[in-house]
Amino acid sequence: xxxxDRLLYLLILPILPLVFWxxxxxxxxxxxxxxxxxxxxxxxxxxxxxxTLRVHGDLGDSILEVQDxxxxxxxxxxTIKRCVHSGWLKHTGDFNACVPNKVSIALLGSGTQKxxxxxx
Amino acid sequence: MQLHIQTTRDDxxxxxxxxxxxxxxxxxxxxxxxxxxxxxxxxNIITIIVLCRFGLSMAVWVNLLxxxxxxxxxxxxxxxxxxxxxxxxxxxxxxxxxxxxLKSKRFNSLQFSAMGYSLLAAIAHISGxxxxxxxxxxxxxxxxxxxxxxxxxxxxxxxxxxxxxxNILKRII
Lengths: 120, 173
Prior knowledge:
The complex is a heterodimer of chains A (120) and B (173). Chain A has 2 helices and 7 strands; from the N terminus they run αβββββαββ. Chain A has 120 residues and is an alpha+beta fold. Chain A has a domain at 32-108: mini-chromosome maintenance (MCM) complex, domain 2 (Sandwich), CATH 2.60.320. In chain A, the strands form 2 sheets. In chain A, strands 2-1-7-6 form a 4-stranded antiparallel β-sheet. The longest helix of chain A is centred in the first third of the chain and has 21 residues, at 3-23. Chain B is mainly α and 173 residues long. Chain B is built from 6 helices and no strands. Chain B has helices at 9-28, 43-54, 56-74, 80-100, 114-137, 147-172. In chain B, helix 1 packs antiparallel against helix 2 (43-54), helix 4 (80-100) runs antiparallel to helix 5 and helix 5 runs antiparallel to helix 6 (147-172). Chain A binds chain B through residues 1-5, 8-9, 12-13, 16, 19-20, 23-25, 27-28, 92-93, 109, 113, 115-120, and chain B through 79-81, 102, 108-113, 115-116, 119-120, 123, 136-142, 144-145, 147-148, 151-152, 155.
């Protein structure tokens, strides 16, 4: 090990915890949500505008609530209400759907994303 | 008409050393990995040894030939795996190129040995791969959460590979 090697290690080893601290952050706050019904794109909501809206699905109207950067299913005409019980969504990449009513919410960060990942 | 290609001693060296690196690359691809993207990178030991023994341009040849031929043999040529492999190789070669500049200076102890080269190459390799993975394949900020873990392994495996390279260099001189 030469002096240069030692200096390199002295530089790298303190950086490692910093990298952990910097990248190991909680998920980023989502800014927008895309609503799909039956796989078809319906609309894009800003999570900054508090509102309650009805989305017409296969069984009836799902009621979505947007509040302070979060979104949830407030009510849905399904029987189990799993979508309602899963509660608020607020992180980029979060996803929720009322499968019987075929309504889904996908949360987005800044910018548009065409895909999650590519694999072969 | 018979085609005759003049080959130099260096050409033969490059061919033999690349063959060795490719063999290690292929054997390594069989080892199962606990985390996606984690690989010991033993093939890079050859790159480091070639850099220390025969200089930068030969190391570039051996490393790039390994990536291209290795992918042809594994059937991943031009696939994301190949792109990531190439990105890693190019970024580590770039860093090694910069690090090797220290060599020409007067102070002997201020140049890197195989240890330093190996560590630098490992870090550059994983960083380059993350940038390309983020730009091309997984444009999702959550990808970067893997970075600290893989960087730690890069430091660890870069050190292990550096020790191996150093021991091999000691024995072949």
